[in-house]
């Protein structure tokens, strides 16, 4: 028997490791937090890793989880051993197939990293609401609580399903288990061969559909047969649990790790018992052990096999002495008598009683509680609170634990100081910035400790919801025993703060226990650091007697060519002062690991990292605590001017204290105020643009391209400058409209992310010193205070009259107030400039339905909301339904608006006597295209409201309620290519097929950006993406051409980095078109692999090479006798390969397989030429108009493609 | 006609070799070069600086967003085969050596001394027949002296000489103060050949964009004169082989270079502009010229017009310049 390896991996990898080895077919679709399982499987298959039968499993990414489950169903029916990985909404999409798979008694084990279902809000985090929605499908359900268990039960589930023929849903907690890095013992191939019996595999294949033994499945049955046939499977369910237990026993005998259907931990004569499953069971077990040692008679039943629920096994596990039982559910079923596990336990007792199972307390007190929704912390304090509640003579029968419910008062009080963590476990907390590599370094440290020492190791990582400047908090534990603490560290022996600025934003040292070590990365000389600390930090260091170490890691990183990556440096510091390993040994391991990790990336990368390691210790200093004398105190995290809700609720969430908010603080239905990002001053830019007004040519391109609306243009009357701050800059406005006005470009210094895109687009150079432009980057700190005042003043200057802007091109459009600002999108994001433009052009009458993805995260992930309101209080109304239904969701907006508009129009007609005929006619006949038209209609509606006031007729009241719909609304479905090309394509296509006035904006990054770069059907030929590791071999879908095929759809392809005025024109045309419109917008993205400050250059290259043609297809042109399609850039100015070579996604293919890249580049070139040629041909076609009677024919010879 | 020549220790059938250029980028291209009759080929340079910059750029692009958001721990496929070192170039050398019969000279363009040695070793291991070093440093710092710049080059050559046994050719820039002295020092440091002279991307000014734009234009025969002078001066004074590169567009150009001392004539622009067939045409015309002028072999012409043998060596020195001015004055 081969020796079993100890590895340090996360739960997802632990599961995938088993699943990949014991399956032949894997079909998936990316969804957090399960995506990594599919990615691991794909990566292993791409490298030729074989399963236990010597075959490389086939891994397919489908267009949705519905598609993945369909493919799996088919693969199972055709005789393969197949699996899939999913979570949350993805699991819901699989339910129809799950019924089928179970109904057909199919051996199958799927793996689910359990995640919250979207209700009042989406959440990517973990609970059991998704898996609980599957308990009726006929699947058996197996729950794991740790990476090791998930690894083991992945095998047990598959083996048991082969024997029982009941399909298994194996689940473990999303993030807490799926993303926890832990040391575990890996099952060998021999173990798996032992567990997966050949005879059962053969039996599974024997049941396959094959023309060699033809049968029919999937019949339709009538009342005469269905019911009985449905009952025919009962025998299989009756023995399923015992088969699972047998499989667990077989596993335990060979491997040594023993599992039961229901495991019990605690006092053998326990009187109070809790019942639960998943990762919380680990914390419960740890707490029970602690309290039992202190003399408590308590225990915990951990559910492994939840379905089929084996009552005798449950009762056998539960001590007969149990008098009171608390059942904990990690889900919520509003309106139910109780949550599902609770009801099962109650029913179990009832059934047992009926069956006469005696010898125990048969009527114990059974109460139930909810905990841990959306990964809410479940701590030993929570466990104790539940036991305490059980001890009370009158317990709350339906409680919650882990939150404060001050509305319905269901929550249990939890002692925050209850601590059971043993002293021999090292606990470290590390605060890092997303981009600084802290998490990566910590994962590496865990690996070193886990694999180079006998210690057990655990790492868990907390991310905030921002994509740029995100904070990460790493929680690391190392100790001599298996670590079962599935909760965050609150008393750390080591606290590291990798970014000095965090000291002003978070109470970092709150995590430090007295006498802990504090490591700080500070951009100061060691002698100055103490004086630079906020007073609160000085005080805590003194009070808690912390040992304080400091390093200027950024200086070391710069000097060794590491840029902003301080990961290696901080890792060395950690090992140097934490004492978890001898210093030299640790450094040796770090170096080896650098070589292993980066060796392939080039010697330079290794060399520079090694240099950073060697340089670090020279710059690491211990600082003696001085007197607590700092004048600087931690500033308030939001301005005193912020609204009450922001002060009370949002600010708490911003500073990481959202857990402390009670139920009463929250809206009841998921409705949140917009425009709250403005209160979150993140100050993440090291440098910001500075405007030289003398050089500016007033093109407004800087404002157009800014992803965060952090640089803005305004024209205003000179009088407005009277109270301007001293450094506020202003020049005369040069264009013909707004004659005599002043003009300013202003930077929002605390909201800018420092991406430099505005500087790169600025065309205005100093003629004597062209290196100096109208916008140059300069360090932010010295500018912050003055520019903050300037920006505040700028915002208060009234906006210009939008109806008076003569030309709504880039220059004109950027004088309009952006109503999408300071989002958490990546620095340099290529999507957000389009959304910002959308809000500038139509924001005050805009409804957005947003598909799940990047744009729903930076658009709606709390704590702050980027969609804003104008001075009149109008602004975009925004919502996210799902990933797959967004076009339909927005279509529903349009249906509602049209319905309300119809009602309003009817009422205007019927009330014309009250309103006045001329006003009624003017309202009903109003053309609402230009800003002046819209303003006139708003004025009419205001007059209408005035006239209705005091009219005491039901119709008048009704008209008042719908009068605003008389002003035209702009409805947009916004989302990424994963939605538009893949999962949502069916609905999108259907919406396009209607004649409703709806607009669709596809932010095409050509990859699933939000979940980490999986290929979509928009991924271009030649690009490497997850699930297309060798470079995608087929062309991207031509979504625009497909939409054009309808004939009545407005279609545009745009790239603002190449043709910005064209983009503005397309947006305006699409919006004004009274039918369906679709704009496909090139969006550069971090998943393309280059510095985003070159995003615009790459867009231009894409257009110039022809790989991204820009065009507008406007059906309105047909009536004028013109071809509807206008090709606005033909490409051919440079080879496609020149565009491709600048991006890692393509270059990776070239470096891995130059011959393949060459072939793909040629194919990409051909595809570009073919696409442009097709468009050019279409652009020459005149479509017959009414009475024309001619077939379509070219009106002119199209221009030959330039390519 | 016997056109044989010795260059870098290799007996070549004739002096026409293909210099570092895109013609040698692929194996097919190399096969065409050999079929066109080249007696040897210099592969396009491995740009150490570029490899380093690209490694770091990809490293940053891939790593800087990793592990920074809950939904994505990375944004790129993890592929062990994605190597950013010189492996592609080394593989090209190996392929070239396995398929070609003519000598294959690698070329290395570098910036940092440490890496030169490392890469030279790898190139030797990959089986190259010789290595052409291409070190051009723009000394923009006023504190950097000419002697320091020369010393750096000499140190690099000495370092590489110590590290590898490969024959070494040094491709020189024309901008040294005392090329003859430098040549002697390079010979002492272990150079086996000197190649005169490197051609560079030259800056141009875009008056519209107010930007410097870099271009590399194909050479013309007018560029040959500078090279002839220094070939003639170096020939006979150094024991290394000499090669000319830049400005040879005809048989007569090639013969001039040989007469001034070039053991090898590198062709690039003429082939890029006129196709590989030009090589055989030049070869044919050289042969015919030598036959017509009753030379016994090319060897007879080699170095015949170098400074030690030509009848009017003063014309290679400042006299040439004075004479020209006088001519102008007379007219």
Tell me what the structure shows:
The complex is a heterodimer of chains A (1203) and B (331). Chain A is of the alpha/beta class. Chain A is built from 43 helices and 38 strands. In chain A, strands 1-9-18-19-17-20-21-22-23 form a 9-stranded mixed beta sheet, sandwiched between helices. In chain A, strand 11 (272-276), helix 11 (280-293) and strand 12 form a beta-alpha-beta unit. In chain A, helix 32 runs antiparallel to helix 33 (931-948). Chain A is globular, with a radius of gyration of 32 Å. In chain A, 56% of the residues are buried. Residues 1191-1203 of chain A have low confidence and may be disordered. Chain B has 331 residues and is α/β, with parallel strands linked by helices. Chain B has one domain (5-330): TIM Barrel, CATH 3.20.20. Chain B has 12 helices and 13 strands. Chain B has helices at 27-35, 48-63, 87-99, 113-126, 146-163, 179-189, 224-234, 251-259, 269-274, 277-292, 298-301, 319-330; strands at residues 5-7, 10-12, 16-18, 41-42, 46-47, 104-109, 130-134, 168-172, 193-196, 202-206, 211-215, 241-245, 264-267. The interface between A and B is large, with 65 and 39 residues.
> What oligomeric arrangement do these chains adopt?
heterodimer
Distance between the termini of chain A: 62 Å
Q: Name the beta content range of chain A.
A: 15-25%
User: If you compute it from the alpha carbons, what radius of gyration of chain A comes out, rounded to the nearest whole angstrom?
Assistant: 32 Å
Helix content of chain A: 25-40%
Order of helix and strand elements from N to C terminus of chain B: EEEHEEHHEHEHEHEEEHEHEHHHH
Query: CATH class of chain B, please?
Result: Alpha Beta
Low-confidence segments of chain A: 1191-1203
Instruction: Report the strand count of chain B.
Output: 13
The CATH architecture assignment of the domain at 6-210 and 226-254 in chain A turns out to be 3-Layer(aba) Sandwich
How big a fraction of the residues of chain B is strand? Answer: 15-25%
Q: Give the class of chain A from helix and strand content and strand pairing.
A: alpha/beta
